[in-house]
């Protein structure tokens, strides 16, 4: 089996040369889709011939013709495929991403179309939950949107309560991070985030809030340190400031569900900031393999 030719790097000229028309994009999708071999979805036969659409495959036994986009996030997309590829490239390689308004003007698409497509990309940017944070991890909550009047209440209207976890790496400061909207600041809301994103043997530090205390049973290295208005964890303070600054610049009002998409988008890029070579291929691969309706579901 031929090894597929992955696109690597951040060079937008090389990207444009390679994906200047739909054909190259369909090939890329097809190569990812069947990189482990072809199996007919209807009858499990493994022999195919060329199908009707570009790079589709037709089962020689039952005649089922599967396109390279079917069952992927590119299926029934209103955006032409090579423009969709360019949007994905921009969203993962530009440091601050791009708003749907910017995408609409750059690619001459309707803003709503870009907004809907970007939502799919953001879902592919959510963590695959395979690599929880390890080592030293700091956890804190903050409010995003609206005023930060009192700590530790509930997400209310525009104001969303967000839990953030940040790895502390001794050799270069901070490592990876994740953030999630939570209903309130109690154990039951914290727990799913901990289970998804933090390793059981991580050395976790939080402030003195009692909501964290029940987690010590499952996270034996969790330590609570009395709060010093964020001064004891300057890296976390900077991380939250940067996240809020980016959100302010890129969107105004959005639902909890959309807000989670922005948090995932931010951290997808953030967690790969020192390893950008394969970011496009990683994201594209997820868009092929993830269910197009992957909302709040696990891989
Ligand atoms: Zn078949």
Could you explain the architecture of this structure?
36% of the residues lie in helices and 14% in strands. It is of the alpha/beta class. It folds into 2 domains: 12-117 and 280-289, no CATH class; 136-250, Ribonuclease H-like superfamily/Ribonuclease H (Nucleotidyltransferase, domain 5, 2-Layer Sandwich), CATH 3.30.420.10. Strands 6-5-4-7-8 form a 5-stranded mixed sheet, with helices on both faces. Strands 1-2-3 form a 3-stranded antiparallel sheet, with no helix packed on it. Strand 2 and strand 3 (65-66) form a beta hairpin. Helix 5 packs across helix 8. The longest helix has 17 residues, at 234-250. The protein is elongated, with a radius of gyration of 21 Å. The two termini are 26 Å apart. The chain binds zinc ion.
Fraction of residues in helix: 25-40%
Largest sheet: 5 strands, mixed
Count of domain modules: 2
Please give the count of helices. Answer: 9
Question: How would you classify the helix and strand content by structural class?
Answer: alpha/beta
Into which percentage range does the β-strand content fall? 5-15%
Please give the radius of gyration in angstroms. Answer: 21 Å
| Bound molecule kinds, no repeats | zinc ion
Topology, number of strands: 8
- Characterize the overall form: elongated
Mean pLDDT, rounded to whole units? Answer: 90
SSE series: HHEEEHHHEEEHEEHHH
Instruction: Give the neighbour order of strands across the main sheet.
Output: 6-5-4-7-8
End-to-end C-alpha gap: 26 Å
Enumerate the spans where pLDDT stays under 50 for 5 or more consecutive residues. 295-299
